[in-house]
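Dear support,

We are seeing what looks like truncated structure output for some complexes. This example has two components. We would appreciate it if you could run it in full and send us the complete token output so we can diff it against ours.
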Amino acid sequence: SQQGEEDPQALSIQEGENATMNCSYKTSINNLQWYRQNSGRGLVHLILIRSNEREKHSGRLRVTLDTSKKSSSLLITASRAADTASYFCAPNQAGTALIFGKGTTLSVSS
Amino acid sequence: GAGVSQSPSNKVTEKGKDVELRCDPISGHTALYWYRQSLGQGLEFLIYFQGNSAPDKSGLPSDRFSAERTGGSVSTLTIQRTQQEDSAVYLCASSLVQAGGSETQYFGPGTRLLVL
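Here is the complete output from our reference environment:
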């Protein structure tokens, strides 16, 4: 199993701005997943990108994956106050546990 | 169908007592995870069950922690002789492992444990 490392640890922006969070990992993966957590409760799955994909969109979310650099980014466009949460990446290898890092804490102020 | 459920939602105990936390995964999910999250911190992996395989216990912080999964479904996390540093939110997640390793985890609401 491996753990992704999110960067930055904390991000503060204004409503309407875009938020970009990065994730780095160490070994080969089958896919990489992003999750969101509100108020210390359970994580909610946002998006999954496979190792043979380079970019994926879901609503205001855009995820990129660069397997040569072992990195991924999550872009939230036109952010809203409701996007305030912690965001976690999870690089996934077949047959191993999905392990989360410390996350990026995003604060969106109105 | 129902999601992952955990009980109790909150637990207050005295230092030195044992506690049991329960997780009911989504029916049919083969994988089950336990995590711990201290206030303001990230998720700490504790243990992973996958089907009939031996569990991955590499995240358990001490031998006071143990977990079992009966019949491939319900899981119980037991903390013996609790310490104040065990205070945290304990999260359970389940997933359906698919070919290629793609597995979306579904989380329960967590159990907030406070050790006085």
